[in-house]
Amino acid sequence: MKHNFNAGPSILPQQAIDKTVEALKNFNNTGLSIAEISHRSPGWDEAMDECRSLWKDLLLIPDEYEVLLLHGGASQQFLMVPYNLLQNKAAYLDTGVWAKKAIEAAKFLGEIQIVASGKESNYSIIPKYEIPTGVDYFHYTSNNTIFGTEILADHDSPVNVVADMSSDILSRPVDISKYAIIYGGAQKNAGTAGVAFVIVRKDILGKVSRPIPAFFDYRSHIKDKSMYNTPPVIPIFMMKETLQWLKNLGGVTKIQQLNQAKAELLYGEIDKNPVFKGTAAKEHRSLMNVCFVLDEKYAGKEQDFMNLSKEYGIVGIKGHRSVGGFRASLYNALPIESVKALVDCMQEFEKKIG
Description:
Number of helices: 9
Strand order of the largest sheet: 2-10-9-8-5-3-4
Oligomer: single chain
CATH architecture of the largest domain: 3-Layer(aba) Sandwich
CATH class of the largest domain: Alpha Beta
């Protein structure tokens, strides 16, 4: 058995994989593969509608919001958000690599105020910040995959809030009404790479004075029900099946309980095992991406631990190339048995070198 801790693209529910394989062979009893059907066919319309309906059901999305399923990933939304919302000035929170990329993209279209940055702490904390008034919106990245920090609270804000929730969407309940836009790439908890989700409150659009190319205008995609251009049918189908799996499991409240149990198990081992130590501040630890290193006295033994982890069938725990160490991603589809295998591996490693 393989224990897949990859940070993204990540582990998927087996049910979603099996359903997608079936659709690749024969979609909706048409005798055609989903890879070769017309995206204008009634069968595909039904699949798109079902996918959007599952989003709305799982996150209790109010009627004044639209769910868009768009090409690409979160990085394209770094530009689409300011294109649609930034008239003069926007506020951004700098919590890591992806937040910085969003900031750099937004600078092409207006003035950006950085309300706080975790750079001095090597992004091991969520810095203290206040949301300013007098800006078009406030943007933050809720979960930071590289450094293992997460903002779990929804904001009471004097301005529109935009959140990149690529890596923790659907892992816990979210009060959608507190946000203007929530967006992200699918390839963690919502499916496979190739499609982005955008949850947008419709009344915030059409307020900027600049002309917006149709492809970058959320209104174009709302009008054409996410089919302004040919949709990425296979990733969207995989998303639909992943959401259906989550609904069958009990929804986001149930998965939150499971995710907390997985995180508590792994962080508990990190905190008591003298060979390892966590890198994120305890009060800001992510439930999705657990980042840790070897204690200084065991420096140089990283490859030994990686070798042992392979014997346990563990894959994907090498830390991001920019920070090193280890990273275990505990996304929705990862079973707690995989976390137990990692804990067993860590305990054996302690016995070997401790």
